[in-house]
Amino acid sequence: MWLIWGAVAVILASLFYFDRLPSAIWWPMRGLFVVAAVFLVVALVRAIIAARLDGKKVIFSLILIAFMYGTLHLMCLVWVKLMSAKDDALTTVDTSKLTEKSRRGVQAQLSGDSPVIYDREIGWVHRAGYSWKGHSIGAQGLRGTKTYPEAPADPDKRLICVGDSFTFGYEVTDDQAYPFHGEQLRPGTEWLNLGICGAGLTQALLQYRKNGRKFGGKYVVIGFMTNNNKRTVNCFRPFVSPDDPMTPLTQPFAKMADGKFSLEPNPYQSLTDYEKLLADEAGEIGRLYQLDYFTWSHQQGAKNPVVRTLRYIADKRDMDRNWDRLWNRSVDDAPVKFRPGDDPYGVSLWHPRSPGFQANAAVFDLIVAEVVADGRVPLIVFLPSAQDVEDRAKGKPAKHGAMLQHLQRQGYRYFDFLDSLAARYPGDLKKEKFYVNTHFNGETNRLLAEEIVKALDLP
């Protein structure tokens, strides 16, 4: 029996840890793996022959196997549901109905009791004059209570900041958002905060076009939190964030189908469309599903909890890389794999072969081109999630590395704030240091403003 357990241990070590072993023992381990696999197959065949199964034994064995699989299925189902709250790679989306939180968010939108307001071109923007939990929206729709003249007194001292809730400064007060810190670091400068909670890169581009361009200024800071890659290609936010009560809304999205790029309009062209959604959830969500990245990506993620659990473990343990090393094949340097059977909104979105990656890259190209055509200086800032910080602390490569390479090849001005944090706190990267719940705390936002000042060389 100990030989069987030893063979199993060799196989598991090869699949999960081969890449971490000293290269000097790779070939011996390859030999051990083959021997262990052959040994287990032979042992299984011998056990079946020795059992001399009759009809009753076969039925009993099948019942036992079904019971064991049912138990495993239930355990994996519970594990997926529990882990989905910690890792959005396991978030389960019901594409036939709204969650209760999303339903309340739609109702709040229709009643006018929401921090955001419907916008046909952008999807949604923050409600001017609205305040909640330390978050204030001024009369111009900008974060904070300060009012800015539309034409700057000195364009060289004005920055337009677009992005999502990390730019907006969600979960911190007005005076702790990074644009506010920027104005304190460089008195006399103006940092206009046009961040939109729940927005993606497509909406950042449209926000700049509709509400940012008119304010002039020399610089445009494009904040891109790493989860934004999903939102860029998503037409209905509950498909990627089913329990977000603030923005369970439709939005314009970027599309890359058959090599052709397009910016698709907001599926809901009227606020009254949300009344139709509440009246016929299944029908409306089905129609939105056909428009969404779920469909045009031509990818279909597994729904079986056992398969999802095994794939999650395989991804976390870099089994693809270990498998390539084990068979002495060239290793794909990309930190993520692209497989047609993967979850379309999973990490494969970061692979250059993914249509979602290509659509995100095209939007970056478009927004930079428009900002430059306006005579301004664009700066792209990648903002890490708490999971990104944890992965860097464990020595894992950034999953968004291929996109950073695209920006570098294009010659764009950018920086990855994860690199800044790692350089400032070597050996002490802990998410508790940088976040309040899921967003940057005030101190981290101040550090971000400092890095933007340096990147733009502001006097």
Describe this structure as you would to a colleague:
The chain contains 19 helices and 13 strands. By secondary structure, the chain is α/β, with parallel strands linked by helices. Strands 6-5-7-10-11 form a five-stranded parallel sheet, sandwiched between helices. A two-stranded antiparallel ribbon has the order 1-2. It has a domain at 100-270 and 342-456: Rossmann fold.
* Structural shape: globular
CATH superfamily of the domain at 100-270 and 342-456: SGNH hydrolase
Question: What's the rounded overall pLDDT mean?
Answer: 91
CATH topology of the domain at 100-270 and 342-456: Rossmann fold
Number of distinct beta strands = 13
Helical content band: 40-55%
Structural class: alpha/beta
Distance between the termini: 72 Å
**Strand order across the largest sheet:** 6-5-7-10-11
What CATH architecture label of the domain at 100-270 and 342-456 applies?
Answer: 3-Layer(aba) Sandwich
How large is the radius of gyration?
Answer: 25 Å
Number of helical stretches of at least 4 residues: 19
List low-pLDDT spans.
none
The profile of the biggest β sheet is: 5 strands, parallel
Strand percentage lies at 5-15%
CATH class of the domain at 100-270 and 342-456: Alpha Beta
